[in-house]
Design brief:
Blueprint: H1 5-21, H2 24-28, E1 34-39, E2 45-51, H3 54-59, E3 71-81, E4 94-100, E5 103-111, E6 129-136, H4 139-142, E7 152-154
Length: 155
Amino acid sequence: MKLTNSFIFKLFLLFFYVFFSINVEVFSEEINYAKALVTTSSGIQIHVEVADNLMKRRLGLGKRSHLKKNWGMLFVFDKLEKHHFWMKDMNFPLDIIWLDNYRIVHIIKNVKPIQSGNPPPILKPLSPANFVLEIAAGQANKLKLKKGDILSYKF
């Protein structure tokens, strides 16, 4: 039986859909996040879990009931781009901070979880970034973080 390119492509799409549609919650308990330390220009340290691959970035902080005090998540990307985020499967509000290497280029504060049944809005930065830091809502104000500030990382 000769397989057509169309059939092979459809089979690939089906596999892709099934593989990535598996409930991410199952994987969340098995994902082992590396830990790092983000330090503000004033010397305040934020412990973070590092989301440095597609599965970790896709899950992010979703499906969690809370964020540990003084903790966050640092998303690491290979390319400097306008990486979009959303609050899918989130249960608590966040401050989302986009960074071009070490410099803050955009902040969206107090992003709330979506109401059940509503599609999550897409959060877009104004400038390209290769790191994104998610921290508890209100922390950006408490830490006095603003565009142009420099953060450092210790992996």
